[in-house]
Design brief:
Undecaprenyl pyrophosphate synthetase, binds farnesyl diphosphate, alpha/beta
């Protein structure tokens, strides 16, 4: 049977988060420059965005550039920023056509102005779309996000607009970049690394983690379907026992 047909559409994760790793190694294995790997990686981004929209995933968050990535050689950083601008420009019509809404999380102000402008246009032009929410994590650091949220909450407590005893998980969540999105149920990392790398540390508390040795430029629709199928075969218990889960709900929880 076709792998796509094996996927139960009623038990899809609402939110899939991906660490797109391995562009550099993929390029090196072919005797090419790292930037070539990033260019090929964009083709995977397009394929995975389309597949996610088609199958009915509601949120897809892609780790496109971490706060730590600023420390890479300038030529690579510049190439990635240029690739980002060109990709948004080139793909915007396709995003509109496919009812995809673009969002950004991360330290937006640290991005070059041209990127900010292109991304703002992309977000505005897709703001009315109701299908897949495509969230790009750019200049993103989860620790920074948590520290910033704590700072904003502390300020509100200090100026009296929030009581310390009213700070709970809901309030904390409202101060994260991801406040409008549900937590990811599935996190995929490509390229054989078993790390979270400062990605959505708070939001991934109960996510299923899926690691594959496939490098990002080779990760296409069928690899996503495999990850979804694997996710559907897992039992999500949220701290309960297996028996409780089966008694309370025969459905996937
Ligand atoms: C990790 O591979 C990948 C990145 C740091 C950048 C990801 C960017 C893209 C896929 C292209 C641009 C994205 C969009 C959304 C337009 P790596 O370079 O760390 O690979 P390595 O671990 O093999 O060195």
């Amino acid at each position: 049977m076709d792998i796509l047909e094996s996927i139960d559409r009623s038990k899809l994760p609402k939110h899939v988060a991906i660490i797109m790793d391995g562009n550099g190694r993929w390029a090196k294995e072919r005797g090419k420059d790292r930037v070539y790997g990033h260019h090929e990686g964009v083709l995977s981004v397009r394929d995975i965005v389309n597949a996610s929209a088609e199958i009915g995933i509601q949120y897809l968050t892609l780790y496109a550039f971490s706060a730590e990535n600023w420390n890479r050689p300038k030529a690579e950083v510049d190439a990635l920023m240029e690739l980002l601008v060109n990709t948004i420009r080139k793909e915007i019509d396709e995003l509109k056509k496919n009812n995809v809404r673009l969002h950004i999380i991360g330290d937006f102000a640290s991005l070059p102005e041209i990127c900010q402008k292109e991304l703002n246009e992309g977000m505005d032009m897709t703001a009315m779309n109701t299908g897949l929410n495509l969230v790009l994590a750019l200049s993103y650091s989860s620790r920074q996000e948590i520290v910033n949220a704590s700072k904003r909450i502390a300020k509100k407590v200090a100026d009296g607009t929030l009581k310390a005893e009213d700070v709970n998980e809901t309030v904390f969540n409202e101060h994260l970049y991801t406040s409008q999105f549900p937590d990811p149920e599935l996190m995929i990392r490509t390229s054989g690394e078993y790390r979270i790398s400062n990605y959505l540390l708070y939001q991934l508390a109960y996510a299923e983690l899926y690691f594959t040795s496939v490098h990002w430029p080779d990760f296409r629709k069928n690899n996503l379907y495999e990850a979804l199928l694997n996710y559907q075969q897992r039992e999500r218990r949220f701290g309960k026992t297996s028996e409780q889960i089966q008694t309370n709900s025969p459905q996937h929880v």
